[in-house]
Amino acid sequence: MKKLNVSKLITISLLIIILAMGSIIISAKNFKNGESPSKMTQVINDSTGGIDKLLSSPGNYFRDKYTRIQSFLNTYEENKNLKKELYQLSERATNSEGLQAENKSLREALNLENSLVGYKKITANVINRNPSSWDDIIIIDAGNNDGVKLNMIVMANKGVVGRVSQVNNKTSKISLLTGQHGLDNKIPVRIGNSDSPSYGLLSSYDYDKNAFLVSQITSKNAIKNGDLVVTSGLGGDSPQDLPVGKVIEKKNSSESSFEELYVEATGSFYDLRTVTLVDRIDGSHKEEENINE
């Protein structure tokens, strides 16, 4: 039975091939003589055309699917490459911004160091700033081996930002003036010009105002908004004439008859990369040092 079916299939295939060849020969002859194909030739042409279409359909189907899959793969690969390029561009932009900020910080530290004539200066890098104590503490890469002393004034971004609160051999902890303990030791300041100055104490930081509070004003000289506030150096605990900020508001103290001032900080506390520690040349600090090995 299987042999019979194979024989029939071979016979039918041969007939189709013979008919197709005959159709091609007759069509070519008619075309050459400019004659229209006979009805028999048209029937044969239509039959072989239908068979060709039937036989070519699976091939066309799979070819179309292959083309679509290839197109999808090409699109996926292009998207992958584009994402990679976009990430690389973003990374380069981030690195560039970081380098620009670092260069700016270094230039400002250098300018500050050049402007502070007559002071002992130590420039250091911020190596740690924990998000949980962002407004309180920074760690720098300079310590006792570099000459750092307890309570040294710390400057950054053109203004006073903190004080040394702990000294180790190679690192130090800085208490920022915006922190909870940054002004435990109040800083004497001078308000206004040197001809008719007023004096007070930088005593706390008001987060609602985003400003320092200067209390215990010792003079009733005309203080106005915009007056500059600098360290006074009184008491021998800090150098004088270091920029602190400018007056933005005055108020009467509820606890005493002294007038109080809100002072906007000169130095930004947000982006601290490089800091400068400042001390008097005579080194009139207390000999209290907390040195951890």
Protein described:
The protein is of the alpha+beta class and 293 residues long. The chain folds into 2 domains: 77 residues; 174 residues, Beta Barrel (Thrombin, subunit H), CATH 2.40.10.340. Helices cover 37% and strands 28% of the residues. It has 2 helices and 13 strands, in the order ααβββββββββββββ. The strands form 2 sheets. Strands 1-2-5-4-3-12 form a 6-stranded antiparallel beta barrel. A hairpin with an 8-residue loop joins strand 1 and strand 2. Helix 1 crosses helix 2. The protein is rod-shaped, with a radius of gyration of 44 Å. Involved in formation and maintenance of cell shape. Keywords: Cell shape.
Secondary-structure topology with pairs:
Layout: H1 2-33, H2 39-115, E1 119-128, E2 137-140, E3 153-156, E4 159-168, E5 172-176, E6 187-191, E7 198-206, E8 211-215, E9 228-231, E10 243-252, E11 259-265, E12 274-280, E13 291-292
Parallel strand pairs: 4-13
Antiparallel strand pairs: 1-2, 1-12, 2-5, 3-4, 3-12, 4-5, 6-7, 6-9, 7-8, 8-11, 9-10, 10-11
Helix pairs in contact: 1-2
Morphology call: rod-shaped
The total strand number stands at 13
Tally of separate domains: 2
Distance between the termini: 100 Å
Function: Involved in formation and maintenance of cell shape.
Pfam families: MreC (PF04085)
GO biological process, one term: regulation of cell shape
Keywords: Cell shape
Would you summarize the structure shown here?
With 293 residues, this protein is an alpha+beta fold.
Spell out the key features of this protein:
2 domains, Thrombin, subunit H, disordered C terminus, 13 strands, 2 helices, six-stranded antiparallel barrel, alpha+beta
